[in-house]
């Protein structure tokens, strides 16, 4: 059996998410602060000579060729004319449709890892540009540093917010990004802020009110959490992150959560775990 290599695909949080306008193609202009978590999926790669991209893990509700993992690998194969193949498996822990960017992170890890494993030597900027067509969040995961982002999320200014401990909770609903962004009554006119001069505490998530008005599961859990810690939705939901100064506090509140709420505790990371793995490659 040939050698296997594993790389992390971490979660992201949107520490705030302002919608500042909408483009003629329907996409939204955003201002957001991305931070990674030291928690996420793990992808394992086995190089083959078959020329084929094979995802060995099945996903409920996502066909093999629609999976962002497969799309990213095929895209890289196509642009680079690489004749090598790969078998990929994933230990999936991030909830889908949670606002944690799992799919985009998986795609970014495929691009970054195969760039190394297939010895393609694309730059980070080239990989991020390739990734943007797969998802608006792919470039930030390719760049791998916490950042204030603009445009659809692809204009990236690295920043270093405080690395809190977070309790991340998932209300028992899955919310599609497209559903939120296509809502006629979503707030789309938040005034742009200056990336070098803003107060994190006065920022917010423009999707949150829309979501809590429609999903009582999110509204109820958020109302419960804010009694204990500053709490906000990430991305278009449904996950909520609550900030703590130490791990024990986060774990204590986790132990008090209402029954049946999926959750994990993780630390904010301004450098993505993927970057650490790449730096140490070959392992
Ligand atoms: C909400 C965020 O997670 C914030 O980080 C991202 O902007 C969403 O990123 P994503 O899940 O990678 O989104 P994509 O797969 O690119 O887009 C999903 C759908 O959301 C809408 N969409 C997405 C991003 C954006 N800036 N404006 C949009 O209107 C589009 O209708 C698109 O069809
Ligand atoms: N490898 C993958 N992992 C997760 N979802 C995938 C993957 N490939 C395709 N998808 C599809 O993408 C959708 C969005 O998944 P994802 O986990 O990225 O959502 P999300 O966390 O809400 O992302 P965001 O924060 O970007 O809104 C899923 O519902 C699924 O249909």
Explained architecture:
The chain is α+β, with helices and mostly antiparallel strands. The chain folds into two domains: 4-159 and 270-279, Ribosomal Protein S5, domain 2 (2-Layer Sandwich); 165-267, Alpha-Beta Plaits (2-Layer Sandwich). It is 29% helix and 28% strand. It has nine helices and ten strands. Strands 1, 2, 3, 4, 5, 6, 7, 8, 9 and 10 form a ten-stranded mixed sheet that branches. Helix 1 links the parallel strand 3 and strand 4 (85-91). Residues 62, 67-69, 96-104, 106, 137, 177, 235-236 line the site of adenosine-5'-triphosphate.
What order do the helices and strands come in, and which of them pair?
Elements: E1 4-22, E2 28-48, E3 53-55, H1 68-80, E4 85-91, H2 102-117, H3 124-132, H4 138-143, E5 147-150, E6 155-158, E7 165-170, H5 177-181, H6 208-214, H7 216-225, E8 231-233, E9 240-244, H8 247-255, E10 262-269, H9 273-279
Parallel strand pairs: 3-4
Antiparallel strand pairs: 1-2, 2-4, 2-5, 2-10, 5-6, 7-9, 7-10, 8-9
Pathway: Isoprenoid biosynthesis; isopentenyl diphosphate biosynthesis via DXP pathway; isopentenyl diphosphate from 1-deoxy-D-xylulose 5-phosphate: step 3/6
Organism: Thalassotalea eurytherma
Keywords: ATP-binding, Isoprene biosynthesis, Kinase, Nucleotide-binding, Transferase
Q: List the helices and strands in order.
A: EEEHEHHHEEEHHHEEHEH
Q: Report the CATH C-level class of the largest domain.
A: Alpha Beta
Largest sheet: 10 strands, mixed
Helix content: 25-40%
Beta-strand residue percentage: 25-35%
At CATH level 2, the architecture of the largest domain is 2-Layer Sandwich
User: Whole-Å distance between the termini?
Assistant: 18 Å
How much is the radius of gyration in Å?
19 Å
Domain tally: 2
Average pLDDT, rounded to a whole number, is 96
Stretches where pLDDT is under 50 for at least 5 consecutive residues are none
Q: Total strand count, please?
A: 10
Overall shape: globular
The chain-level structural class is alpha+beta
